[in-house]
């Protein structure tokens, strides 16, 4: 199995973590996960643009363009013969004796990327259960940072209660899932938190909003409350790995009929058509 280390193709067994890597000690870095369908990277340009934006926001200099990283990742996917799966990549601020301020500018970022196979049958995702939980994260959730403690603690709470996702809220305002964006549908209209510092502007979220435009589903990028969430007709979770997943139960209470709603189903079908269009044979 091959990996990328600083843009070079290497055997996975050769790659070791340096214990003074700032990613390891501080979570000082950024990452992305890109989906592979039929051996092709889905929406990779959007993901890699966000990666570079996240890095810029914390002053990590990525020494490649979107096109250069994309070419490297394509080679990696081909080398590992991944038909369906994901590519994970991260850039840390590099290796330097442990000290909070940034190291000098001659310390290069450390960049790794590797692939994972994910079984895929093309079926629409069935309804999933969620809990609600106070959002205790920092105020720069727009950065796809390696620091995921808040997200992990929320997801663990969901896992402990047999749920798939934890829907976070700041006071009464719903922000996003622990590893996804959350939208509601009320009277046929979709609502989702605006892309502010309080959420990650999900690529799947952006693809979904484009689909809404194409389908003529009205939408508003407007925050909604916990009360609106639990009485919504439909609740939708979006992420690279969960694609478009209907949330059919929250804190033990059914959403709508307890079955995936019609707008959700329409969006799911259009999403599959879109990935076929971009990654089909
Ligand atoms: N919010 C958070 C906190 C996430 O971790 C993710 C998954 N990366 C998302 C939203 C969804 O983003 P995307 O659709 O780009 O995977």
From TrEMBL:
> Might you give the EC number(s) for this enzyme?
2.6.1.21
Would I find Transferase among this entry's keywords?
Answer: yes
The UniProt catalytic activity note for this protein reads:
D-alanine + 2-oxoglutarate = D-glutamate + pyruvate
Q: What class of enzyme is it?
A: transferase
This protein's UniProt keywords: Aminotransferase, Pyridoxal phosphate, Transferase
According to the UniProt record, one GO cellular component term is: cytosol
Cofactor(s) the protein requires to work: pyridoxal 5'-phosphate
Q: What GO biological process, any one, is recorded here?
A: amino acid biosynthetic process
According to the UniProt entry, the coiled-coil residues are: none
Q: InterPro entries from the xrefs?
A: Aminotrans_IV (IPR001544), Aminotransferase-like (IPR036038), BCAT-like_C (IPR043132), BCAT-like_N (IPR043131), Class-IV_PLP-Dep_Aminotrnsfr (IPR050571), D_amino_transT (IPR005784)
Q: NCBIfam families attached here?
A: D_amino_aminoT
What is the protein named?
D-alanine aminotransferase
Source organism per UniProt? Peribacillus loiseleuriae
């Amino acid at each position: 199995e091959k990996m990328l280390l600083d843009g070079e193709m290497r055997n996975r067994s050769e790659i070791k973590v340096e214990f003074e890597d700032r990613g390891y000690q501080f979570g000082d870095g950024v990452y992305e996960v890109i989906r592979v369908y039929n051996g092709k990277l889905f929406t990779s340009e959007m993901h890699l643009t966000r990666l570079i934006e996240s890095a810029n926001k914390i002053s990590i200099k990525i020494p490649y363009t979107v096109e250069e990283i994309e070419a490297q990742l394509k080679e990696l996917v081909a080398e590992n013969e991944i038909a369906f799966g994901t590519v994970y990549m991260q850039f840390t601020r590099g290796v330097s004796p442990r000290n909070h301020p940034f190291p000098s500018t001659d310390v290069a970022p450390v960049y790794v990327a590797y692939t994972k196979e994910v079984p895929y049958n093309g079926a629409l995702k069935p309804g999933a259960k969620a809990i609600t939980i106070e959002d205790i994260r920092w105020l720069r959730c727009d950065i796809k940072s390696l620091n995921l403690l808040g997200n992990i603690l929320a997801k663990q709470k969901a896992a402990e209660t047999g749920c798939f996702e934890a829907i976070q809220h700041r006071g009464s305002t719903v922000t996003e899932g622990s590893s996804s964006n959350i939208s509601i549908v009320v009277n046929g209209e979709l609502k989702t938190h605006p892309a502010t510092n309080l959420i990650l502007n999900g690529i799947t979220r952006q693809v979904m909003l484009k689909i809404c435009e194409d389908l003529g589903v009205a939408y508003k990028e407007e925050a909604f409350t916990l009360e609106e969430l639990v009485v919504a007709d439909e609740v939708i979770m979006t992420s690279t790995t969960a694609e478009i997943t209907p949330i059919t139960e929250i804190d033990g209470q059914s959403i709508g009929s307890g079955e995936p709603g019609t707008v959700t189903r329409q969006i799911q079908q259009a999403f599959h058509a879109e990935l076929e269009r971009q990654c089909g044979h």
